[in-house]
Write a structure and sequence with these properties.
about 375 residues; alpha+beta; 2 domains; seven-stranded mixed beta barrel; three-stranded antiparallel sheet; 10 strands; about 35% helix
């Protein structure tokens, strides 16, 4: 009896050892976390874009192959993305990455161009990236250059400003990204970046879908007036002319429940005056000389529609300023300059004569 009992204990010990070994092995594989509790907290906690806390990530790939693939026929490259769960367990996800963008993708403009991260749907279940498919990563552009870091933070905050004005906007998450070369030929480096919400996910969040225009020129009368004026005034506020409604340049259209006309959603603000990148220039169609000058590019709408939107900007002024005042990564000089730039905007929209001259008389009639 005693021998049988000892044998049973030995069997139990072996089974428990095998389970522990299997869990340890599972945790070391991409797409897995090292504990059930971490999986549960990742799944039940805040979503990827539900907090503004910076996220620590590590992207591992053959960096030379990935970052030099910038032509028109770019390929996806194998990579892994890792982060720490709430209990410090490591979550590692297999994915594919490729370079993207227009200006920042060109050779000579950026050391690290923007990237598209393409996740495996089954791997992201019960992780921070659950329900994510493809995500744009806006990068720091040039390594170890403080100026470019400030450009990135300014663009990130530009998205946050629009989030305060409407839910029909693309959300962002600030990231401290460590880039690790899988070949071991270059040392790891860490820079700021931010993740940009997928357009279809944004539309779904607002109970809508992306509008497919099938290459047609978009007419102003197709677009919901409220959100079109909102987007145009916002672009005026941040000093951005790098957008076009007819060509849907840096504009996405979504159709949502309860609103008959499509809604315009702006994105891509690195050429905005508020960012003030040294490489940024105004759109060729406008007469201003620098991006810090403002020119209204919205279509003409009834004055009552405009005044309602300007009131929304006034209501959110304190919250907008707080985004910059409370950001510990932006230089104090940048904060001061930005708030002064916004002060000029608010002086204009609260002066009826200047509103008439700068917006009502300057709006596009065709």
């Amino acid at each position: 009896m005693k021998n049988a009992y000892s044998c049973l204990l030995a069997i139990c010990f072996c089974v428990l050892s095998l389970i522990a070994s299997a869990r340890a092995q599972e945790a070391s594989q991409p797409g897995q976390v090292s504990s059930d509790s971490a999986r549960s907290r990742d799944h039940d906690g805040l979503g990827l874009f539900d907090t503004d806390a910076p996220l620590e990530l590590t992207l591992k790939a053959d960096l030379k192959a990935l970052l030099k693939d910038r032509g028109e026929n770019r390929s996806y490259h194998s990579a892994t993305l890792a982060y720490f769960a709430e209990d410090s367990a490591t979550v590692s996800l297999d994915l594919k990455a490729k370079t993207r963008g227009i200006f920042r993708r060109k050779f000579g403009n950026c050391d690290v161009p923007p990237l598209m991260l393409n996740f495996k749907k089954k791997q992201v279940e019960r992780t921070l990236f659950e329900n994510q498919d493809k995500l744009k990563l806006v990068t720091h552009c040039r390594n170890r250059q403080k100026t470019y870091e400030q450009y990135l933070l300014q663009e990130y905050l530009a998205y946050r400003v629009y989030n305060l004005l409407t839910d029909k906007s693309l959300r962002v998450r600030l990231v401290r990204m460590t880039y690790q070369d899988s070949t071991g030929k270059r040392d790891p480096f860490t820079e700021f970046a931010f993740l940009l919400e997928d357009e279809e996910a944004m539309a779904k969040r607002n109970k809508g879908i992306i509008v497919d225009t099938q290459g047609k020129t978009v007419q102003q009368l197709w677009i919901d007036a409220e959100h079109m004026v909102l987007a145009a005034v916002y672009q005026y506020m941040i000093g951005n002319t790098d957008w076009s409604l007819p060509g849907l340049h840096n504009i996405e259209l979504i159709q949502v429940e309860g609103i008959s006309d499509p809604i315009a959603v702006p994105y891509d603000f690195d050429f905005a005056g508020v960012v003030n990148a040294h490489y940024a220039i105004p759109a060729a169609q406008v007469s201003i000389k620098t991006v810090r000058e403002r020119i209204y590019r919205g279509f003409c709408r009834p004055e009552a529609d405009l005044m309602s939107i300007l009131a929304r900007f006034n209501q959110q002024r304190e919250a907008i300023y707080a985004l910059y005042q409370n950001n510990s990564f932006l230089d104090q000089k940048q904060i001061k300059s930005t708030l002064k730039y916004f002060d000029e905007f608010y002086e204009i929209i609260n002066d009826p004569k200047r509103v008439k001259r700068a917006i009502l008389d300057a709006c596009r009639k065709d």
